[in-house]
Amino acid sequence: MPHADTLTVVHHDDTRTRFTDVRYQLHRDGIRIWSDEGEHHVTDVLMTHAYRQREATN
What we know:
This protein is mostly beta strands. The protein is about 0% helix and about 60% strand.
């Protein structure tokens, strides 16, 4: 499962939601995101931007 330091979700209405230090999984019906705040499932996704600044650790 990919890990991102910063993950930005761009919605169909051009609004953006930003998450930090997350794991995520893209699906046909959206994106599932796991963060310190819990699990999020976003279905209104136009595109995503994921950035990784540091080395991944297990």
